Amino acid sequence: MNKSTNQSIKPITTKINKEGNLEIGGCDLTELANKYSTPLYVIDEITLRTICKEYKKAFKEYEKVNMMYASKAFMSTAIAKIINSEGFGFDAVSGGEIYTVYKAGIDMSKVLFNGNNKSYDELELALELGVGRFSVDNFFELALLNEIAKNKNKKVSILLRITPGIECHTHEYIQTGHLDSKFGFDLTQIPEAMELIQEQYTNLIPRGFHAHIGSQIFETKIYEDEVELLIKEMALIKDKFGIIFDEVNIGGGLGVKYTNEEYPPSVFEIGKLIIKTLNKALKKYSLKPPVLYLEPGRSIISTAGVTLYTVGSSKQVPHGTKYWAVDGGMADNPRPSMYQAKYKAQVANKPCDENLQKVTIAGKFCESGDILIKDINLPELEEGDVLCIFNTGAYNYSMASNYNRFQKPAAVLVNNSQSDIIINRETLDDLISHDVIPNRLD
Ligand code: LLP
């Protein structure tokens, strides 16, 4: 089976250049660190476009596929433009993500709005901007969306999000398909939801089901289970309500390779399996092929991204750990402290140095848990070295915070030896731009 880009730890353009430095997208990482300062998110356009194309190829045997990039993994107007140009739509989960797609000038009918507690304002904004699909999560939202649609005299196409009761073996916080989850309708609640739609919520047009089983998934079997279950549920809807669902959304979740010990399946393997299972189940229940929606996030953007840091202070615990601190940490990458996530790194200005030592890379934030990488073998570090942590494209910038009143880093896009800012570094004035001093304090 062909390999795919999510199975690589580093961006596919990563090289060691003539100067002996690491380069990505033809750009020397030490030069990028100098030019744009650090911490710096670097996104390799070729890696990003390659995985998008691989997804398309992996599912091309199934004629009706809507690829929807899960914006929560990393969203900016430039990223939206690239993903759109690769023929993907967008899974958005907030007014902010929807607005970003809109400001990028993208056809809003290609957006699907997900989320378990969409607000009145967000639903209204989505309807006004012409968002194409709404994945409805619960009874409250059925009523709310119907009311807003009715006020606006609109009919809205919806998917019903269900909790499939499938557990995947990923970190507990990123499982979503198990029965005791906050997301979606329990299967036993579907008949009631359908009755309400048919009888009361007539501004809603039910088009299909939506499920998402979790994130950083390595097991292929659970996709089989999910597809079988969704098609079986579609058959039940046809029998009980005479309604033929013509769309099915199986969510995202495909894993990536953060470390040498992780072996995520390729998109080609997943694609083949999903199409085979889908066709078999459709035959079994005598159903016509629905439009298949996929919502990959991490596997699209993770490998394309790296983060550059400058090495600063160090501490040798007597008879213990050697810490080296970098100029970022849990505010630009909260994943190690939230999910015990592991990363690989190299020193961009001496990637070939073989005199390795075991060190722990700490961040600069005021928490003991602010450790980016525990126990990694790296060349002897010095203040000023540029550390490159791989596979940080997903859920780093999008989960970044201003903890300790630190400015969020910039992001640059690299391709063909060119680098372009796609997100400016926050300034000190940005940090206080929302602060207000009431008059009485003057
Ligand atoms: N669709 C739905 C409904 C989702 O909830 C998610 C992710 C996706 C698609 C995209 O899943 P992906 O392909 O990225 O695995 N912050 C965590 C990950 C949370 C994922 C939340 N939902 C992390 O850093 O690992």
- CATH level 4 superfamily of the largest domain: Alanine racemase
- Stretches where pLDDT falls below 50 for ≥5 residues? none
* Gross morphology: globular
How large is the radius of gyration? 23 Å
Q: How large is the count of helical segments?
A: 12
CATH architecture term of the largest domain: Alpha-Beta Barrel
Q: How does this structure look, described?
A:
The protein is of the alpha/beta class and 442 residues long. It has 2 domains: 169 residues, Lyase, Ornithine Decarboxylase, Chain A, domain 1, CATH 2.40.37; 257 residues, TIM Barrel (Alpha-Beta Barrel), CATH 3.20.20. The strands form 3 sheets. Strands 4, 14, 15, 16, 17, 18, 19, 20 and 21 form a 9-stranded mixed beta sheet that branches. An 8-stranded parallel barrel has the order 5-6-7-8-9-11-12-13, surrounded by 5 helices. Strands 1-2-3 form a 3-stranded antiparallel beta sheet. α8 packs parallel to α9. The longest helix is centred in the middle third of the chain and has 21 residues. The radius of gyration is 23 Å and the shape is globular. The model has no long low-confidence stretch (mean pLDDT 96). The structure holds ligand LLP. Ligand LLP binds next to α10 and α11.
